[in-house]
Target: DNA polymerase eta
Amino acid sequence: MPVARPETSDARVIAHVDMDCFYVQVEQRKQPELRGLPTAVVQYNEWQGGGLIAVSYEARKCGVKRSMRGDEAKAACPEIQLVQVPVARGKADLNTYRSAGSEVVSILALSGKCERASIDEVYLDLTDAAESMLADAPPESLESIDEEALKSHILGMRREDGDDFKESVRDWICRKDADRRDKLLACGIIIVAALRKQVLKETEFSCSAGIAHNKMLAKLASGMNKPAQQTVVPYSAVQELLSSLPVKKMKQLGGKLGTSLQTDLGIDTVGDLLQFSETKLQEHYGINTGTWLWNIARGISGEEVQGRLLPKSHGSGKTFPGPRALKSLSNVQHWLNQLSEELSERLSSDLEQNKRIASTLTLHASAFRSRDSDSHKKFPSKSCPLRYGVTKVQEDAFNLFQAALREYMGPFGNKQETWRITGLSVSASKIVDIPSGTSSIMRYFQSQSTVPSCSADGCVQEHIVNAPSASEGCSEQRSVETQAASLEGDTGATYTLPDLDNLHKNIDLIPEKDMSCLLNETTDFQTQSGSNKGTQTKRIGRKTNNAKEKNQGMPSIVDIFKNYTATPQSKQETREDSTVSSTSKRANFSSRSSHSSEVNQEVEERRETEWSYKIGEIDQSVFDELPAEIQREFRSLLRPNKQLKAGKSKGDGSASSIAHYFPPLNR
Ligand code: DCP
Model:
């Protein structure tokens, strides 16, 4: 079958860099006396010596595997050194490893477009660097090739018996008659070898790398020769590589799709897919997945390296295996509080350091029921828009849990039946930069289309409101819907719930598309375009008699501002009475518990009336919902001098006044 490849991706040079036994290396850097010894990092719990999560290559030689408990590892390798993961809030604290990963990223990022793919993995697009090298100092013109580059594994490289390995590599790298694609790869070999040496020198960590023309092939190659080595995939070797690659070894084929390929199409390797036409694959798996399968069988992947050095999401999780499974709501709440606290801490530092905010909170759990007649029933994951502040995250996480539990146990919940929770995690996703300068508040609110309030009785209510648009001032009706996102595209196949054991490794770095898989089976309060009717409140078995909620008595700032359209406001008004425009109807901040129909009516009125309220009346707790930067902006409005200044500065483009963001209606 002819191999068709898009010309554009042919000439790219992509590297996948993967740290070797990463947590072990981090611990060995802390305790250099452990270097060279069989070592493993274990989870802190004491059951059978804890669970191994990272194993050094010396220990692997003795038969120690990550799936083992500490006691088993000691039996297999009596001299093994077991190092415990640092603990905080009763759970593994991965901050040291995250920072160590960042050290590596900061070095690699200097070489080209860099995508942090997990705590210890990075993709690099080295095309520009390779092209420059090819133009300025091609490998064949170099006096010597670095030793590290000469140790590279080049897939499909022809060698005669007795050839010197390094000499063969040198010949391949310096071939004058090679086509441009291989010449660029040769440059990639030299660049990546230098980068790996740099990482080792500056961080003391060794890493392995795959170098190819796309991400998929680079990732496959990086794991082929470990530790501290690099592997190259020239085009000529792609077919051979894929024809021997078991389907399940391919990142996206590890689940149901891979199983279906094996059982329904009877194939064993990725290369076996070549026997099926694109149409046939589409018939079986839908248009997108069919085309995707057709492409990967040929080593084609158009996925770009994303220039992203920061995580796409943050998460905090914990497993409760065997007898430690949680069986009471108070226990679950205790752990959710711990997890939420950790998550909030990371959200705060992301906000502080990177000026980024997350907008979706998701709860995942794994569970089983005492009399499980439906053993395949998964504990549903739940999401809602994220509110900043530890207590709010804690509250929302617990309410999401209760809503999920109710769904899991069924509406009529058999009283005899009990549940056990074996894993919990909370994650924050849809992270965006806070736009700096003008209209930052507007953009912040734009990013949040719905405002949830999770009630403590386990039900979830969502006020569906109009989000203001800074650009258009248009509004959309929002609705609650259950989404079942699936990596496996239009196959209808579902993606399994996250492996909570591994979640803590990757959750903060999960690419968005993969995150959407994690959110599979979630009740995700996403938005959907609809008519322009204003606010609508949808109830799902909601009770509003929660004392705590009544006490709060204040609508959220997000609730309020999302109902307004951005229009210019006079500076005069702001200066004189320290007010911001607002609906007079809505001026009473303590009317949160209004009925849905009242809310509808109110919003209609708000949109017709100029709004006005005193900024000083805003409750402190409402401020707490906002990112620190935006809080600062609001606070500045309470200082008259500052307001005057802000008003003046508007003219010179450096607006920082609330008046600038939420002006009165332009009539
Ligand atoms: N990790 C974890 N739990 C898992 C898997 C991994 O906590 N179930 C952590 C420990 C690892 C780190 O993530 O050190 C990176 O995971 P890798 O899968 O990349 O494995 P290692 O880096 O440990 O080893 P290798 O050299 O095989 O990549």
Observations:
- Residues 329-354 form the longest helix (26 residues).
- The pocket of 2'-deoxycytidine-5'-triphosphate is lined by residues 18-23, 53-54, 119-120, 226-227, 501-502, 505 (CB under 6 Å).
- The chain has three domains: 1-16+91-309, 22-90, 314-637.
- Residues 22-90 form a domain with the MutS, DNA mismatch repair protein, domain I fold (CATH 3.40.1170.60).
